[in-house]
Structures are given as C-alpha cells and as structure tokens.
Amino acid sequence: MKAAICYEVNKPLVVEDGVSVEPPGPGEVKVKVAVTAVCHSDLHFFTGEIPSPLPGLAGHETAGYVDEVGEGVTRLKPGDTVVIGTVGTGCGQCYYCTIGLRHYCTERGKLMRPKHTNKKGQRLALMAGPVGGFAEYTTVSEQLVTRVPADMPLDRAALLACGVTSGFGAVVNRAKVKAMSSVVVVGTGGVGLNSIQGAVFSGAYPVIAVDVLDSKLQTAKEFGATHTVNIAREKDPVKTVVAMTSGRGADYVFVTVGKVEAVRQGFSMAGPRGMTVVVGLAGGNLSDFTPLEFVFTEKILTGCGGGSIRSSIDIPYLVSLYQAGKLKLDELISGHYPLARINEAVASLAQGEALRNIVTFD
Amino acid sequence: MKAAVCYEFGKPLVLEDIELAPPGPGEVRVKLTATAVCHSDIHDIKGELPGPVPFVAGHESAGYVDEMGEGVTAFKPGDPVVVSLLASCGQCYYCITGLPHLCEHRFDPPAHPRLKNQKGDQVFPRGNIGGFAEAVVVNQSQLVKVPADMPLDRAALLACGVSTGFGGVVNRAQVKPFQSVVVMGIGGVGVNALQGAAYVGAYPVIAVDTLDSKLKLAMDFGATHAVNAASEDAAATIRGLTGGRGADYALVTVGSIAAIKQAIAFTGQRGTTVLIGLPGFKDQLSLSPLELIPTEKNIIGGFMGDANLRIDIPNLVTMYQTGRLKLDELITGRYPLDKINEAIASTEKGEGLRNVIMFT
Which of A307, A331, B39, B213 gets the highest tally of CB atoms within 10 A of its CB? Predict the structure, then answer.
C-alpha cells in the first residue's frame, strides 16, 4: 500500500508504495482509509515544533471502511462506514473511565503503538495521534472506531474525528456553556468555527469572533457569530469585547489559535468568574499573569483536550445534527487532494488559506 | 451448597441444598462470609416487588473470591470482596458518562441459569446475587476488592444500605455545607443518610421518625435535631429550624407514600425531595402540580446512592478505617443461615438497623 511518510522535519512528505500494516489483533480493527483531513496539529509535527521519532506517519482525521476485525470485536463488521477518532472510548475500568472522563483513560498511551512498516522494514512512528491516517490502510484499537450511517459522506464524517469535536466539544462538553451567556472565540479557523457553532447551538449570546483577517471574520458570521472583532485593526480589542458584553467581559473565552499571546489577550477579555479555555496547541509558556487577577476577579483558566469527547456518544450525535441541517460541515472543506498531492494540501493549510483540506484515497 | 429459598411469597424461607453453576466468561464465584438483611429483601419475599419464584434473596454480601470465569483478570482466588447488585457493562451511554449505576444492562438476567434445586427446577438469584446462600456467582462488575484487614460483615453493609443512604446525600443530592437536610426514617439507610449529611457539613441535620428510640439513635449518627412526626407538628418544627423556609433537602428512606408527601411539605422553595427508599411496586404518588410551580420544588429519585462501586466502596472503607464512618454500630444481630427466618422477622419488626447472616 501507499502512504505519505515524514522522513525529515520541514521537508515534503514522501509518498511511497510498499508500506505494510499489521493485521488486527484482539480488539483491533483494520480500516481501508477513504479520506483523511489535514489538521494543524499534523503541521506542528512536520515542522518539528512538537518533536517525534522519525520516520513517522501522521494523519488523524480519518474515515473509511472496516476491512477486517480482530478477535473479540463484535460491534463492527467488514464494510461498515466508520470514523477513526483521536480519542478512544477508554478501557472502561480505570478511575477516569469510571467517572465518565473517557478521554483521560490512563491506558490511552497504549493506543499509540505503531503498526506500519515501510518497504525498507523501518517502523513508522505515529505522529499527531493514534491513527496513521495518511496511508491506504490502518489498524487501530476498536476504541477509536465509531460507525456512521452509510449515507453520511465520508469526507464530512472525517472532520468529526478532531477539528469539529475539538471546537464544538470545548464549548458543549468542557465549558458546558449555558444559554444567554456570552462567548468569545479567538481564532476562527477549522476549530474556532466549530466553537462558534457549539456556542450558537447552546444558545449563547453574544457570540463574538476574534481574528486578524476580515475574510475569516466574514466566515465566522456565516457560522453564527453575532459580533466580530478584528484585533489587527481594533485599537483596544479587549475594551471592544468588554463593551459588547454589557461592560463586564465575557462569560467564556475559547482560544483556538496556538499562540500564548492569544491566551493572554483572551483571558483579559473574560469578565469576573469568566472562564478562559485553551483549545489550540501552542508552544512556549504562558506568562504575564498575576495571581491578583485571579483573586479579585475569580477568573478561571483551563484547557480542553480533543473537545473532552465521548466518541461513541458524540460522533453519532454530531452526524445527526449535520443530517438535520443544524451543523455546518460542507463549508469547512476547502479542497480535496489525492494522496499523491498531499504536500499541496499541507502547504495550503500552513499558509492559513484553508479551513480543512481533505486527502482522498482510491 | 446451603441456601434459603423462597418458594411462596410471605412464607418462611426453606433451607436446602441447591446447586450453583460454575462461573461463565466474565463471572466470578464468591464464597460468602456475610450477607445483611435489607428491607428490599422483605419486599421481595412478601411479593411486593415483581419477580419469579422460587428465588434466593440477599444482596448485601461480602466474601472471598473462589473461582474466576474466562477472561477475568482483575481478581484472584482469596481476594476479599464486596458483592453488589450493581452490574455494569462499561460501554453503554450511562457507563461512559460516569453513571454505571444506571447501566442499560444492569437488570439483564445472567446469560445462563445459575441455580437449581434438588428437583432440577431453576432457582432465581435476586439482584443477580442470591446472597442468602453459602456462595454466589456474579458478574465481575459487581465486585469490589477490599483490604484484607476490613471485617467482612461490616464491608457487606457497604454494598447497599450504607451506600444508598450516604450516597443519596453525597452523590445524588450533592448537599453542600450549611444546607439543611431532613432525613425521613431512621433505619439502616436513614442513619447513613444522616452520616452523609453530617460529613458534608450540612446544618441543621434533622431526623424524622415516629419512634423516640430511633430518634435517640439518630443523634449518635450525626443528626443535630430530632422530630417525632407522631407527637409533634413536624412541619412547623422543621420550618422553625430552617429560618422559616423549610429544608433544602429531604431524603425519604422509607418506602411510604405518606412519608414522601410529608417530605415534600418539609422542603422549602427550590428544596429537593430525594426518594431513596423503595415502596411497594403498586404504590402511587399523587400530588398537585401547583405544589411545584410557585415554589419550584424538586422531586427526584436516587438509586443505590448513585454508587460508582470502584470509587465509592474503597472510599467508604477508608472512612471506616480512619474512624469517620460508623459501621460497627449498624449491626444489631448476627445469625447463622439456619436462623435466617428469625433475622428477617426481627428486621421486619423494625427492631434494629441491620441483621447479618454469617456463613461459616
């Protein structure tokens, strides 16, 4: 089979044939990949911002068809249309699984075992998640695999593996935003737009989109933002947000861009008792926070990993929302690229032009 | 093995030798040390809860792991364990969201019959346990290991009575410090609701019963006030104790419609009545919606104290071992299996808190 392999950071991926994958062991599933979307976290690995052993295989927003199931897998069968999520449903036995936080399963590291080998016999490390989706076939734990209806377009379904759930889930699962509360979303890319959708869905008002490009803010409005702030042009964006929220600052701020400065600014946009949720992966350290800001305002600073998703519950739910016309997915897709042109898909995302580029497999 | 079988509702249990099937995949056989008698056992035996006969009741058990079925890796022979009726599959909506006590499969009968009598008739283990017998086979999700130095007769109480009362306050109602709590019925569940309320810093913690002896006991388990509903105007007393408003929470630990209606009256605006005692299955509650709208009162149910077994049972053991939870005082009497009908009669008369069947 063919796969797009990262041999060196900051170099184009090498699309090569002769790659093999292990057959599914007990509790595992082999999937014929139909599509894998390119996510910004893939880029963090390709540039070396997040280090990884090499050669490596990235890609974690994947959908396809079950090809073969391992021993003990009863809930899936060959031919099923599935999404491979980045977050497992958990071992079901550890502390976090037992209290309903499956995304913190203490056994989740085991999902990262590499299963692909290139034609020279080198093991390919899994990059940016436990999926290995930039290959024609992959084998993963059944915990990561969620069946979707046969009439769900797989390129849209793939987005539910990470980008959509990270943004939507941060609002709905992590922050549990209530109706009538005010929400700021900093960064209106493939994750931020989904935080906006989540906020609108929860009945938040106002829903304020913050970005540096008017074109993105225009898209944010189409996804339901009620107000927009262009921080490149606004003299005092914090003051603007405070004015938009009855003079108090926002109840919730979701920082979906991977920049520590954006987290700092987002925190200032939150009002007393307001919660700032760090969603985008950022290198560097947060600085310039004084404990007094926390004490006098009782502000809350927290993070959200993968939308705190319960894959087997949330992915089917989001599919229903899409099919009922209540969740935008079509509009998130900027382009489709066959595997041979994966480097174009990566470059276009890196330039910030695209929301989501989809790599397609035959 | 010896077991106490109910062949006819309302009749004494029959002591006899019956056959226990070996544990199947995911199942474990436990040799029992102790099974406490709970009021729901009496409901079962009197036919007040639905279910087929003949059956073996008993669902507050503890003992030692004896044999494991295929695929069971978390236990080994000799492990001391608490046996609960809460089976959970680990993968349904409720299990995934951290509410295994509401597992969609919690009441599914075992895949294969577990018990049969000498005549070869199937005997049903109530609660998928059947703890009034020398040994049981249960699903592994129903077991929690306890430390070797935890006395098993006291550990058994954690399976149902203690968790239902304590967890009803702490897990279901999530009572906070300074909130006011009324506990209706001071039996084996009620005293544990009192312990839970005292532990989380509730004040006042008001015990309501009709027997002065029970109200005296309530004070030992953390009640700050006691009200005898038979001899005083309980509603007025409770309002007086709660700033004239009525209580934030009322936990109804008895299976009585009259007590439920009283409890709703004892709560204040936005107050919550939590139903944790099982009434008979034909009993109906009727009330006017107008009791709820202007006051925004809540009526909610609590099942088995929302016990998340693997988390809560070890926590309760620690609390007992560090002197923060009373268990010794809950045990009124210990009976060998062949005196089980005496133990049941004593529980039914409301004489004590918990009678425990001890196996040798």
Answer: A307
